[in-house]
Amino acid sequence: MFFDLSPLKLLALVILGTIVLGPDKLPGMISQAARVLRKVRAFAEDAKQEIRAELGPEFQDFEFEDLNPRTFVAKNLLADDTLGLRQIRDGFRLDDEAEAVREAVRTAGDSVDLIQQDPGRAPDRPPVPYDSDAT
Fold first, then answer.
1. How many structural domains does the chain have?
2. How many angstroms separate the CA atoms of 135 and 120, rounded?
């Protein structure tokens, strides 16, 4: 929808409009708002056509959505990927490294549990210093 209204929000607006304007004026206000919205859309479309006409024939396929930087990059830079940007983007994915860290933490946690259960099982580790004054 135009303003990304969910059906629940739209229902709340109708109920609020009925309370504020009254049931007799609400249909007229809705039709007037729809007329204004159609006029604004027609004005915007006319402005787009006029700008395209002024720019010339080489800009006939120009879309104003392309002025959004994210759309521009996706359409012009990532479409053919001659610069290797997709490989650079994929290089920032840290899923494998994060899984390795998770596994290391999991393994370290298992080792700590084993040491606490049976201190004799880990002879290669030095005993943890215990300071009774610090605790």
1. 1
2. 24
pTM: 0.41
CA distances from 71 to 35, 61, 66 (A): 31, 15, 6
Q: Is residue 95 part of a domain?
A: no
Torsion of CA 52, 53, 59, 60, to 10 degrees: 80
pLDDT of 49: 84
Indicate the SS3 state at residue 116: helix
Give residue 40's domain range: 7-62
- Per DSSP, helices labelled H in the chain are 7-21, 26-55, 69-76, 85-91, 95-117
Give the pLDDT confidence score for residue 43 in this predicted structure. Answer: 94
What residue ranges of the chain have pLDDT lower than 70? 1-3, 76-86, 109-127, 135
